[in-house]
Amino acid sequence: GENVEQHPSTLSVQEGDSAVIKCTYSDSASNYFPWYKQELGKGPQLIIDIRSNVGEKKDQRIAVTLNKTAKHFSLHITETQPEDSAVYFCAASRGNAGNMLTFGGGTRLMVKP
Amino acid sequence: NAGVMQNPRHLVRRRGQEARLRCSPMKGHSHVYWYRQLPEEGLKFMVYLQKENIIDESGMPKERFSAEFPKEGPSILRIQQVVRGDSAAYFCASSQVNEKLFFGSGTQLSVL
Fold first, then answer.
1. A69-80, pLDDT tens digit by residue?
2. Do A97 and B103 touch (CB under 8 A)?
3. Residue A52: left if φ>0, alpha if ψ -120 to 50, beta else—which one?
4. How many Å apart are CA B86 and CA B71, to the nearest integer?
5. Would you tell me which of A60, A84, B61, B93 could form a disulfide with B101, CB atoms 3.0–4.6 Å apart?
6. What is the mean pLDDT of residues A33-42?
7. Cα B46 off chain centre by
8. B104 with B5: CB under 8 angstroms?
9. Mapping DSSP to helix (H, G, I), strand (E, B) and coil, where does residue A26 land?
């Protein structure tokens, strides 16, 4: 089955700096890659996703890149703000979207004011 | 449009008791997924259901765990004879066909 590795497990940045979180996956048939943000005591919230026919997608301060050949994808957050502090999870799936997502282990992002 | 609703938010059970976790999907969503999250870990897939059907239960423990999504009413994740190792946050997600997953706020199960 699919295996998703996520790095780093913790990331501390200064407010205004950029943050990058990286994931690798093992199943070459995976074609949908969402990113979720989870705040303390809450459920994961979808923040951005990318499909295998696209190499990069951007939404305001966040962007995701995908390298299918190398089987890795990354989340980029620019101009970080304290409210970006949370745990971020990457995931992969064979379906067009949703279905049985396999999650990475998570990255705890701390943005220091 | 209400999001995915899970209840209870917190559930305390003694070893050997039964736990029932409920999930009402978003309006218009016919697919429900259950995930388990241990402290400081990612979410692990448990089961994927459509109305009255279990599509994939490859992540469910073979014993004591069951799930249903009846024609009417919420999806239920049932854990019989709970043990301390069942303590975790259980998240439900819902989607339309081949669409994005939206998660509820979870149920924190504590087994004493």
1. 999 999 999 999
2. no
3. alpha
4. 28
5. B93
6. 93
7. 8
8. yes
9. coil
Q: Which amino acid is at B35?
A: Y
Read off the tokens for A43: 């459920």
Q: Which of A13-22, A92-101, B38-47 has the lowest mean pLDDT?
A: A92-101
Residues of B in contact with A44 (CB under 8 A): 43, 91, 103
Q: pLDDT of B33-82, one tens digit each? A: 999 998 878 899 999 999 999 999 999 999 999 999 999 999 999 999 99
- A99 and B98 within 8 Å at the Cβ level: the answer is yes
Q: Are strands A102-103 and A86-92 parallel, antiparallel or unpaired?
A: antiparallel
Q: Give the pLDDT of residue A52.
A: 79
Interface of chain B against chain A, CB under 8 Å? 4, 6, 31, 33, 35, 40-45, 48, 56, 58-59, 91, 93, 95, 98-106
pLDDT at A59: 93
Going by C-beta distance under 8 Å and a sequence separation of 6 or more, which residues neighbour residue B70? B51, B52
Give the list of residues 6+ apart from residue B72 with CB closer than 8 angstroms, or none: none
Of A41, A43, A98, the CB nearest to B98: A98
Position of tokens 């502090």?
Answer: A85
Q: If you search the block for the tokens 């259950």, which residue do you land on?
A: B34
Token code pair at residue A113 = 């004011």
Tell me the backbone φ, ψ of residue A109, rounded to 5 degrees. -100, 125
Q: How far apart are CA A30 and CA A28, in angstroms?
A: 5
- Give the residue from chain B lying closest to A33, CA to CA: B100
Owner of token pair 């305001």 = A60
